[in-house]
């Protein structure tokens, strides 16, 4: 299984428009962060987790020629805004693209992209098949996908576990029951917005506390804002098995 971090930045990305902080002005490419997304390649299937505003750029940068589907964690703009660009795969392969989401995200997609779901469709609009999931494992072909329910302030969001890989972003709280799904992981990609506490995201301290509890072999932090600090400097402070992620980072499990 191959994991690619397509984007590791928060909703504004890094650098932030008009910001002159040392992170936003950094020349280090690892301090340049597109909106959070990941690609999972497993058993000849390719899944994208979230199609944010940078989806087109992420597909081109990583030379992605085909996808099996998109898994949505939740419906906020920085996670769904790029769905329109799915149409490139429709055209290339003459197929509809499967998307997987809960019913709240489905309603948001209908509101955000009404032209996609109209009975009489305008030529060239994206063609998608919505597959609803709840907090129960489901299969795509023979691949088991286990949703992980968490809270993003007052919004229910989902992470995913595929084999021994866990992806959990935009989370401020997770129950002990759901936490059990994180144990015995080879790799966890986890939300950590900044050092200071935040109402709807894990802080660095909260993320490290959870990781210390569930003890993955390796962990990478994502959805990182410019308030976190410089990539290389922060990494010096972190445990050996936990580091800040960076765009286009690849893991083979």
Structure report:
The protein has one domain (2-252): Metallo-beta-lactamase, Chain A, CATH 3.60.15.10. The mean pLDDT is 98. The strands form 2 sheets. The protein has a 7-stranded mixed β-sheet. The protein has a 7-stranded mixed β-sheet with strand order 7-8-9-10-11-12-13. By secondary structure, the chain is α/β, with parallel strands linked by helices. The protein has helices spanning 55-61, 77-80, 87-93, 103-112, 114-117, 176-179, 204-214, 231-237, and strands spanning 2-7, 37-42, 45-49, 69-71, 97-101, 128-132, 138-140, 143-152, 155-162, 165-168, 187-191, 218-222, 242-244, 249-252. The chain is built from 8 helices and 14 strands.
What does this entry show, briefly?
This protein is an alpha/beta fold and 253 residues long.
Strand content: 25-35%
* Residues in helix, %: 10-25%
Strands in their spatial order, largest beta sheet = 6-5-4-3-2-1-14
The number of strands is: 14
In the CATH hierarchy, the third-tier topology is known as Metallo-beta-lactamase, Chain A
The level 1 CATH classification is Alpha Beta
What's the architecture in CATH terms?
4-Layer Sandwich
User: Tell me, what's the shape?
Assistant: globular
Main sheet attributes: strand count, strand direction, barrel closure = 7 strands, mixed
CATH superfamily membership: Ribonuclease Z/Hydroxyacylglutathione hydrolase-like
Rg, Cα atoms, Å: 17 Å
Secondary-structure element pattern, one letter each: EEEHEHHEHHEEEEEHEHEHEE
The count of domains is: 1
Mean pLDDT: 98
> Which structural class do you get from the secondary structure elements?
alpha/beta
End-to-end CA span = 5 Å
List unreliable stretches of 5+ residues.
none
Counted by DSSP, the helix tally is: 8
């Amino acid at each position: 299984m191959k994991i690619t971090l397509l984007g590791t930045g928060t909703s504004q990305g890094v650098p932030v428009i008009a910001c002159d902080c040392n992170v936003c002005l950094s020349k280090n490419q690892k301090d340049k962060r597109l909106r959070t997304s990941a690609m999972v390649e497993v058993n000849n299937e390719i899944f994208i987790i979230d199609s944010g505003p940078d989806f087109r750029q992420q597909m081109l940068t990583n030379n992605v020629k085909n996808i099996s589907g998109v898994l949505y964690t939740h419906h906020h703009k920085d996670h769904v805004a790029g769905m329109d660009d799915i149409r490139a795969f429709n055209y290339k392969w003459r197929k509809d693209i499967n998307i997987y989401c809960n019913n709240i995200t489905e309603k948001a997609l209908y509101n955000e992209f009404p032209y996609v779901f109209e009975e009489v469709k305008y030529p060239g609009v994206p063609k998608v098949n919505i597959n609803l999931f709840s907090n129960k494992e489901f299969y795509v072909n023979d691949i088991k996908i286990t949703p992980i329910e968490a809270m993003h302030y007052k919004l229910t969001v989902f992470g995913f576990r595929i084999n021994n890989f866990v992806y959990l972003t935009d989370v401020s709280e997770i129950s002990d029951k759901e936490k059990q799904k994180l144990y015995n992981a080879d790799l966890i990609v986890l939300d950590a917005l900044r050092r200071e506490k935040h109402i709807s995201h894990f802080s660095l301290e909260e993320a490290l506390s959870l990781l210390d509890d569930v003890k993955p072999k390796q962990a990478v932090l994502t959805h990182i804002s410019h308030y976190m600090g410089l990539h290389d400097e922060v990494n010096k402070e972190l445990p050996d098995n936990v580091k800040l992620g960076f765009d286009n980072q690849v893991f083979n499990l």
